[in-house]
Design brief:
The protein contains 3 helices and no strands. With about 50 residues, it is mostly helical. The model has no long low-confidence stretch (mean pLDDT about 85).
């Protein structure tokens, strides 16, 4: 739901500010999300997981 919007924003920023490309980190892996949820003690909402 939110992913297409975020992708569009990132593409726009990259097209306008190419030197900032290295500022964008790759998406979190499923393992990273699970580790974060374990540390937090609760599951992240689906939209937030998708954003990360």
């Amino acid at each position: 739901m939110i992913k297409p919007f975020v992708t569009e924003i990132i593409e726009l920023l990259l097209s306008e500010f190419r030197e900032g490309e290295e500022a964008f980190h790759p998406p979190a892996t499923e393992q990273q999300l699970q580790e974060a949820e374990a540390e937090l003690g609760f599951a992240l909402p689906a939209d937030l997981r998708e954003l990360y």
